[in-house]
Amino acid sequence: MSFGYRSKALLRQGFFLYAAHMNLHPQAADTVIEARWVLPVEPARSVLPDHAVVISGGRIVAVLPASEARVNYLPDRHVVLGEHALMPGLINLHTHAAMTLLRGLADDLALMDWLNGHMWPAEMRHVSEEFVHDGARLACAEMLRGGVTCFNDMYFFPQATARAARAARMRAALGMIVFEFPSPYAADAQDYLNKGLALRDELKSEPLLSYCFAPHAPYTVSDKTLRQVATYAGELDLPVHMHIHETRREIEQSLEQHHLRPLARLAEFGLVGPALIAAHAVHLERGEIEMLAQHGCHVAHCPSSNLKLASGFAPVGALLAAGVNVGLGSDGAASNNRLDIFAEMRLAALLAKGVSDDATALPAWQALELATIRSARALGLDQSIGTLQPGKCADITAVRLAGPELAPCYDPQSHLVYAAGREHVSHVWVNGELVVDNGNLTTIDTNEVLAKAAFWHDRIRS
């Protein structure tokens, strides 16, 4: 529940009279959220029953027992969620947001058939700034309703994705995409880089936007361009987000053309390091896992997309055991077909157990880390988001753990991974702003987004 303005004013007046009588000195706050459980993620496995999160100026100022919050803070807005778990906003570490408009266009195909025969031809015909904006808005709507507060994107016309994310008041890491071949967005690799860097210069002061270099994959980017990306990333201290070792065929082609496996080729250019976010990383030898660990690299694990495209099973258990930081991504809606990090958490945990024959591999609390603080760490945003701790931005997701399908609840962390889904998300805050209220988007017109999706469906289908 949340108090209306009139009742809130009366509450404040009454509280100040009580506080004066009791010689109390409550602090003002923008919002206090009380919940049945608060899951801060750090310290690991923490579950705080009947706690509250206090927000001011877009940041968390306190996490404390609800009874103490009522005495110590007087908020403008008081939200009581008696059946809910409160957790950090989920982070989608690898996606192509605008591809929501291609959802279901070409299913049940191998990756290269899917790319060469369907996706790239459709993109060359239809992708434009308008297409990307409308697709990214649709993606923001889906992700926010699913508790995702930040996404790491890789797609054409990133300025259009930026516009959609800013309007939705959603956090986004914008990929400065690079290919060798021309597209409606850019003429060649240098043009891609120039446009990406110009966008970053234009919008670098936007508080909800950050940036990554996003060379698509080793098989679509030349040695010369990879050297440039390595130089720019080092100078600007930005992550490098790239598809790596997604399929066996990718590795075979690299051996044929360069006499090196893709990761070894990247290492020659200095790209294997703490800035690297390796999307998929399915086919890794033991030495490559050790290389990723030794150099502080990150992996964006995309279990649903890996299965749907028959790419294989990423060695997540071995990566984590070696000390590699692993986060979770959905990939694009054209190859998943959902931007659903709840589904990715559950599938990641189950696959890790099945692949390793170890039921203790990737427990629920750790799967929650993959979807929050570990993904934040990969983006270099772990000092700002990924946990519910004082000083961090108030990116928060509330999940209602009630109803027959969720009863009883012995462990809310387990429930979030194995039992609950995005349909149970009730409230979402980004930077302290309520962007989903009782399941309803507050910053996006759902009817308008759906009308745009219908328009593009008819245009692409024809």
Task: Provide structural commentary.
- By secondary structure, the protein is α/β, with parallel strands linked by helices.
- Helices cover 41% and strands 23% of the residues.
- It has 17 helices and 16 strands.
- It has helices spanning 5-22, 66-72, 111-126, 129-145, 158-168, 189-203, 223-236, 248-258, 262-268, 286-294, 303-308, 316-322, 341-356, 364-370, 373-378, 412-418, 446-461; strands at residues 27-38, 48-56, 59-65, 73-88, 90-95, 148-153, 171-178, 209-215, 240-244, 276-280, 298-301, 325-328, 396-400, 425-430, 433-437, 440-441.
- An eight-stranded mixed beta sheet has the order 3-2-1-4-13-14-15-16. A four-stranded parallel beta sheet has the order 5-6-7-8. A four-stranded parallel beta sheet has the order 9-10-11-12.
- Helix 5 (158-168) links the parallel strand 6 (148-153) and strand 7.
- Helix 4 (129-145) runs parallel beside helix 5, helix 13 crosses helix 14 (364-370) and helix 14 (364-370) packs across helix 16 (412-418).
- The termini are far apart.
- The model is unreliable at 1-10 and 12-21 (pLDDT under 50).
Characteristic key phrases:
single chain; 462 residues; alpha/beta; four-stranded parallel sheet; 17 helices; 23% strand; disordered N terminus
Map the helices and strands.
Blueprint: H1 5-22, E1 27-38, E2 48-56, E3 59-65, H2 66-72, E4 73-88, E5 90-95, H3 111-126, H4 129-145, E6 148-153, H5 158-168, E7 171-178, H6 189-203, E8 209-215, H7 223-236, E9 240-244, H8 248-258, H9 262-268, E10 276-280, H10 286-294, E11 298-301, H11 303-308, H12 316-322, E12 325-328, H13 341-356, H14 364-370, H15 373-378, E13 396-400, H16 412-418, E14 425-430, E15 433-437, E16 440-441, H17 446-461
Helix pairs in contact: 4-5, 4-17, 13-14, 14-16
